[in-house]
Amino acid sequence: MIINQWYVAxxxxxxxxxxxxxxxxxxxxxxxxxETGAINCLSDxxxxxxxxxxxxxxxxxCVECPYHGWTFNGKGDVTKIPSLPEGTxxxxxxxxxxxxxxxxxxxxxxxxxxxPEAERPQLPAFPEFDDTxxxxxxxxxxxxxxxxxxxxxxxxxxxxxxFVHPSFGDRDRAVIHDFEIEADEWSATAKVTYIPPLPRxxxxxxxxxxxxxxxxxxxxxxxxxxxxxxxLSPTWRMVIFDVNTPVxxxxxxTRWIMARSFFRQKIFDGDSRKRTLKIFQQDTVIVExxxxxxxxxxxxxxxxxxxxxxxxxxxxxxxxxxQRGWALDIQALQAxxxxxxxxIPSPTRREEQGRNFVLKTAPLLPGDAVPEAVAAE
Length: 377
Ligand code: FES
Ligand SMILES: [Fe+2]
Description:
Number of strands: 21
Number of domains: 2
Strand content: 25-35%
Number of helices: 7
Bound molecules: FE2/S2 (inorganic) cluster, fe (ii) ion
CATH architecture of the largest domain: Alpha-Beta Complex
Helix content: 10-25%
CATH topology of the largest domain: Naphthalene 1,2-dioxygenase Alpha Subunit, Chain A, domain 1
Radius of gyration: 23 Å
CATH superfamily of the largest domain: Naphthalene 1,2-dioxygenase Alpha Subunit, Chain A, domain 1
């Protein structure tokens, strides 16, 4: 799992008056609204005696620790220590890490890392979400007992559709013709065509015959986002936009939005939802059984072909991030588990060169130990 990236921590709608404890990358965080209504994200471990701030309450825009009542503002600074006499100065080290937050597409995005603002990646674009005149969106969640990299790759993998999703692809027409990949610093997109099976149900009104369908799968590092654009006809479009949050190494929450440019009335939402969930169900059967559970660091330990190009672009991008020294050292973390609290470093910690922070930061894999990437066969 990689730090210095944006991840989706929660649905905005689920942030209420109480603090919300969430687990991301194997670490606990607390989300709460301050007095301006803005959502804040702090490390959940109280620096006093390690209680969970998420089990406390929100008081005047601060989160109050349930154990001795210390209150923390959105910057992570302690504003009150009730056991000290009135007027006592709060020590500078009485604080926890605070992480940048953005609200977008109805989700709470949290930047887990210490990069200054100018170096942080953008969030992925999703213009259809705001274009409510022309698009109808439905949303939901899906929980996987699987590594989030496997989950994202599954979304980028076109060759599996005819075998895992018979309503999307035809196993007798499974060839993926050559495609180009367009990439930038944080994302990549492919453009492919596929031959769908003969349509059934309401889809017979969209596709009357086996005409090739154009699709654009893409990924963006922020949110470990997978986006799939499908042109069912020149005007009938569908976009699936999934953010994939690693809860821990083997648990992933996919939060998804499905936008459609046709049948935009609410009455068709149920059918869209049913079809979307069926796809997740079909994928889960395969993805949760993949061996090994984690994508190997040395990519030669799996055999790739040309049609795996977009997945490999994602692998190479991730490798680059590992080489920057941003991957958590899971084995070292497991050895610490429950014995010592460590945290993901926040931007303020970097700005102040770690001064006045009590907890140590999480062990990271040395980037120069990563083997070189290999191209597809
Ligand atoms: S453990 Fe949080 S105030 Fe004591
Ligand atoms: Fe799939």
